Amino acid sequence: MKPQARLSSLLLTTLTLAAPGTLLAEQAPIENDGNEAIDLDRVITTTTRSERLLAQEPASVARLEQEEIERVGHRHISELSFRIPGSWITSNSGQEHLTAIRSPVLTGPGACGAFQFLEDGIPIRAAGFCNVNGLFEVNSEQAAGIEVIRGPANALYGSNTLHGTINILSRDPADGSPRQFSLEAGPDAYYRAGASLSDQDQQRWRVSTLLTEDGGWRDDSGVSQQKLNARYHTTLGAGELQWLFAGSWLDQDTAGYVEGQDSYRTRPRDNDNPEAFRKVEAQRLAARWQAPLASDTELELTPYFRNTEMDFLQHFLPGQPLEHNSQQSLGLMSRIETSLGPGRLNLGLDLEYTESDLSQYQDGEVEDDNDFLRETRPPGAHYDYDVDAWLVAAYLQHHHPLGQRWAVEAGGRLEYLGYDYRNNLEAGNNRADGTPCGMGGCLYTRPEDRSDSFTTSTFNLGLTHQLSGQHTLFTRVAQGYRAPQATELYRLQSGQTVADLEPEAMDSLELGSRGHLGDVRYELVAYYMEKDNFIYRDAEGFNVSDGATRHRGVEVDLHWQLSEQLSLAANATSARHTWAFDRQDGEPIHRGDEVDGAPRHLGSARLSWQLNPGMNLELGANYLGSHYLDAANEHRYHGHTIFSLKSRQQLSENWTFHTRIHNLTDRAYAERPDYAFGNYRYFPGRERSVFFTVEYQQPH
Question: Which fold has domain 3-205+216-697?
Answer without folding.
Answer: Maltoporin; Chain A (2.40.170)
